[in-house]
Specification:
The chain is 18% helix and 42% strand. The chain is α+β, with helices and mostly antiparallel strands and 114 residues long.
Length: 114
Amino acid sequence: MVKKDKKFNVVAAIKNEKVVGGIIFTRKKPDFVYIDLIGVSPEFWGKGIGTKLIKNIKKFFPKTKKLALVVRRANLPAILFYEKLGFEITDFTQPGYSRTHFVGMENKPTTIQA
Ligand SMILES: CC(C)(COP(=O)(O)OP(=O)(O)OC[C@H]1O[C@@H](n2cnc3c(N)ncnc32)[C@H](O)[C@@H]1OP(=O)(O)O)[C@@H](O)C(=O)NCCC(=O)NCCS
């Protein structure tokens, strides 16, 4: 199931007709996509769904080279997930996210290409 509007792109992961995960992302520039949110139902963690949701971005926006996001510093599992996918911690930030509690991450050019 896919819903697109002017700003947000919403993609859901569906198993047996149930939503088990989803991602929201925004194209900021022709080659730059910001990941607003990603989540997978806990009973489906570790099955590759989060990875697929991120890689799927390239199907929507094939010109994507840069991916970026902001994540809670305390969310170590998510940080490890993004690092596994080739993201690294950078000084990327977004309005409204304090650097005290949040950290920016971007994909390394040599690793994941969306
Ligand atoms: C982060 C999240 C989206 C990952 O989804 P997922 O479908 O479980 O991820 P995948 O199965 O694709 O995992 C890919 C790799 O990421 C790493 N990873 C995933 N979850 C991890 C965890 N809890 N701890 C450490 N590494 C983890 C692993 O290296 C994994 O590869 P492996 O299974 O071969 O070891 C999911 O845990 C989640 O929804 N968390 C709660 C919401 C959240 O924190 N969202 C991100 C902030 S907005």
